[in-house]
Specification:
This protein is an alpha+beta fold. Helix content is about 30%, strand content about 20%. It is elongated and about 120 Å long.
Length: about 450
């Protein structure tokens, strides 16, 4: 019979009593439990102090009824002693009877021998728990089987941990097998301890060649321009406990050409918190880098072309703020540009307020039909356009004349009104107003307190 793993104080008392009668503690328990009708010689308080659940079943009666359970059993299962006495322990299985190890348990009961099985049992509230059952046959002094002692241990947490570990290992194997990344484990000096594969290039080093390289040989594979970032900075940061993500650098292939790679590295610590290993995931980004370089060159050519255009070329974000204006626009509206330039500023500042709704409609049409040109006639500010009688910004539609060709049409008292705010009482520099056809104006108007004669 295996040792019962009793509590230290209880085991000491049992051992002392067993020595007095000249037997082992296990044999002493057999003798105490041998007579069904007699009270247990061991104090029930001591039995209930056992840290593991115990169930005693009568072996001489049909269906092995329970004759005793200790307090640990009641605590583990939620059943009281009165609820289980006289019942077969199979009620703990509920309806979950399709368990392979039940056959092992039944065979041991029929043969009168011990066994060890793990069963799916259910507590009184229906909660599943994994119960390790050690079945011990108890014989009387004549060698006759009288009882079965079931020593039970809840392995639910251990089983869950093992299940999680199995799942994690399965997921890792799938990741290792099907991932396009190179997954590796390194010593603190950079040596490879594990490598699932190498880059899928005709000129790549083999897995065995990489695993055999020294730290100095591995460092020599990194492009000299990238070596300070990878070894002197990033590697040292990981050794200090930091995580490195998306580190891009060039590595030399076996045939001498360089490829771009992207690396993520995590420190692996021991129980004391010391970094003992580094796990890395590396992927080939050569095609992406080549595409980025080609895109930058294309954008540079496009920008050069746009800057030479005489037409206005503008770009805004979804909020209507400028993200690009070409040189022609910048030079034409330098007089209206806010401090810091146009980038990030609202495009509506260059459109007459009465045309804002039309501009919004044009923008919505662009979003609804990507790639389809949308035309809209919007009035833009023009320096020197005629006011409608109140101060602000002036605007000119295409084809309209912004200011009179002959300066003699303006009185001297009106000239100051059409100069920047430093010469004008208007709050907004410079002081322009909405244009109208010159022939439609008669009489006089006022702007910033200055009288301006209007052309007939």
């Amino acid at each position: 019979m295996a040792s019962l793993e009793l509590g230290s104080s209880l085991h000491t008392q049992l051992a002392a009593h067993a020595t007095q009668v000249g037997c082992s503690p296990e044999e002493l328990i057999r003798r105490w439990l041998a007579v069904e009708a007699a009270p247990l010689p061991l104090d029930p308080v001591l039995l209930d102090a056992l840290p593991i659940a115990m169930v005693l079943c009568q072996a001489q009666q049909p269906d092995f009824p329970i004759v005793y359970v200790n307090a640990a059993f009641e605590q583990d299962t939620g059943y009281t002693r009165a609820e289980v006495l006289g019942r077969n322990p199979r009620f703990l299985q509920a309806k979950d009877r399709d368990q392979p190890e039940l056959a092992t348990l039944r065979a041991a009961l029929d043969a009168g021998r011990g066994c060890r099985v793990v069963l799916r049992n259910y507590r009184k509230n229906g909660t599943l728990f994994y119960n390790q059952v050690r079945l011990v046959p108890l014989l009387d002094v004549t060698g006759t089987l009288t009882h079965f002692l079931s020593i039970q241990n809840d392995l639910t947490q251990l089983h869950q941990t093992e299940a999680n570990l199995t799942h994690t290992e399965q997921m890792y194997r799938l990741l290792e097998q099907y991932s396009q990344d190179v997954i590796s484990l390194h010593a603190p000096d950079g040596r490879f301890l594990y490598l699932n594969r190498t880059l899928n290039h005709p000129g790549s080093y083999t897995r065995e060649e990489v695993l055999a390289m020294s730290p100095q040989e591995l460092a020599a594979l990194v492009h000299p321009e990238d070596l300070p970032r990878t070894h002197e900075e990033a590697h040292q940061q990981v050794l200090e406990g930091a995580s490195i993500t998306r580190l891009e650098y060039r590595m030399r292939e076996k045939l001498g050409s360089y490829v771009w790679v992207e690396n993520d590295s995590l420190p692996v610590r021991d129980a004391s918190g010391q970094v003992v290993q580094i796990i890395s995931s590396t992927r080939d980004i050569t095609r992406r880098k080549q595409a980025e370089i080609a895109l930058r060159a294309s954008e540079a050519r496009l920008r050069s072309l746009l800057e030479t255009q005489t037409a206005f070329v503008l770009r805004t974000d979804l909020e209507g703020n400028f993200t690009y204006v070409n040189r022609a626009f910048s030079e034409r509206y330098a007089w209206l540009a806010p401090p810091g330039g146009w980038i990030g500023k609202s495009s509506m500042a260059t459109i007459y307020s009465d045309d804002h709704e039309q501009a919004f409609e044009a923008a919505i049409a662009c979003l609804q039909q990507p790639g389809v040109p949308v035309q809209a006639m919007l009035r833009k500010p023009v320096p020197g356009a005629i006011s409608s009688g109140r101060c602000g910004s002036s605007w000119a539609s295409p084809g309209q004349v912004a200011r009179p060709k002959k300066s003699s049409a303006w009185a001297s008292t009106s000239a100051n009104c059409w100069k920047p705010a430093s010469r004008c009482n208007c709050a907004k520099p410079p002081c322009w107003r909405r244009p109208m056809r010159w022939s439609s104006w008669t009489g006089t108007g006022r702007c910033c307190g200055l009288t301006r004669p209007l052309r007939n």
